[in-house]
């Protein structure tokens, strides 16, 4: 079962992480990025929680290229903004196709 999950890119069912997919501008390699809830940095205005922030350095497994991704969430942990330097966000289907073709 794990073999099929890896082959088709499925995430474990009990996984509470959020997944994003980033394509490197230089090599074209697509990297799957997982955000875990314990990585969220709370943002406050005074004593009031206003949202959360996550910054990740993303490194390609084949190209070893570095990209910087930033994610902003509201107080209910809903995504409100995301940016990446050195790449672009793509869909999961793009990552699955790359995995099946074996090309960056």
Explain what this protein looks like in three dimensions.
- This protein has 104 residues and is α+β, with helices and mostly antiparallel strands.
- It has one domain (2-101).
- It contains 2 helices and 7 strands.
- The strands form 2 sheets. The protein has a 4-stranded antiparallel β-sheet, with no helix packed on it. A 3-stranded antiparallel β-sheet has the order 2-1-7, with helices on one face.
- The chain is elongated, with a radius of gyration of 15 Å.
- Mean pLDDT is 87; it is low at 1-9.
Tally of contiguous helical segments:
2
What is the strand tally?
7
Overall pLDDT level? 87
- The topology string of helices and strands comes to HEEEEEEEH
**Whole-angstrom Rg:** 15 Å
Shape: elongated
Task: Report the end-to-end length measured between terminal Cα atoms.
Answer: 25 Å
**Poorly predicted parts:** 1-9
Task: Name the structural class.
Answer: alpha+beta
Strand content: over 45%
Helix content: 10-25%
The biggest beta sheet reads:
4 strands, antiparallel
Domains counted in the coordinates: how many? 1
Q: Which sequence of strands runs across the widest sheet?
A: 3-4-5-6
Quick summary of this structure?
The chain is α+β, with helices and mostly antiparallel strands and 104 residues long. It has helices at 2-8, 92-101, and strands spanning 18-24, 30-35, 41-45, 48-59, 66-74, 79-85, 87-90. It starts with a helix and ends with a helix.
